[in-house]
Structures are given as structure tokens and as C-alpha cells.
Amino acid sequence: MDPRYYGGLDQVLRYKNWELEVFVEFRRQYGQNPYSVLYQQYMPGFAAPYLEDNAPMAFLHRWRQPGDRVVLQQMTESGSSLAYTRMQDYIASTANSMDASFIRLKNVALAYRLKHARIWMKGENIFTYTRFPVGDPETQDPRVLPPMRTVAMGLQLNW
User: Fold this and answer.
1) What φ, ψ does residue 27 adopt, rounded to 5°?
2) Which tens digits make up the pLDDT trace of 130-156?
3) Domain boundary assignment for the chain
4) Model pTM above 0.90
């Protein structure tokens, strides 16, 4: 599950009084399938002993009737049902790992310089492109929120 390769590109562009800085991070990796993690902790239809919150929204996209084409199994309350057996088969299969590669626009900053001041705006974790279905491909844990997107603005005075 170690990354095959990873890195980042940092570019600073300056034109007259303007400055633009962009940092893009990328990683090619395999990770644990988040649905397997969800099945192990929140088996659909079963109440986990320490479950004190709602189940993940991903469970809304589950099998409900014949003909449905979805990733998640139907819910069940029985440990002896066919649905429960198929969930256990899914967890033990090669579906347990999947591509967790991503490209993330990590930082972007724009600034304008005046004679004795600098006006700036900076954003972090602006955009992530990935095929990872649930949660963040960096942490690979569907129970954890992805890095927070932030935008800040400021004025710097120099006397």
C-alpha cells in the first residue's frame, strides 16, 4: 500500500506588482477500499457497540431491489443471511484494495504589492481530483473528514 511515487509542483509567477503562487500535490498509490472499512465498522443493518452517530451517507446508495447496479450490499439484520455472507466475502476479496491516487491543488496565493502595503488572498486544499469513492484518498479512512478547505485574505503594512 506504499505510494508508487509522489511529489508536488510549486510555481511562483511575478508580473509587475502581482504575485501568484500555486502548489499542486500528487500521489500514485493503492489504498484500502473505503467500503470494506465501512462494512467492518458499520455493517449495514447492525448496530455497532460504540456507534454513537449516524451511519455514513454512502449507505444510502445500496442494493434495494433486483436490477440495481450499486457497489454496496443490501442491509440485513441477520448474521446467517446471504447478504451478510456476501459482505464478508467482499471484505476478504481483492476488492479490499483499490486505486487511491490523487492530484490536489494544495495552495494557491495571489498578492498585489503597493508602495508600503501588500494585499493578499490564500486558499488551501482547494480542489482534489481522484477516483477514490468515499472520503479523502490521502487518509483513506471514510470515517475521517478530508483536509479543510480554507480561504484567507489580508493586508500587510510596511512602514
Assistant:
1) -155, 130
2) 999 888 999 888 878 889 999 999 999
3) 5-29+100-157, 34-97
4) no
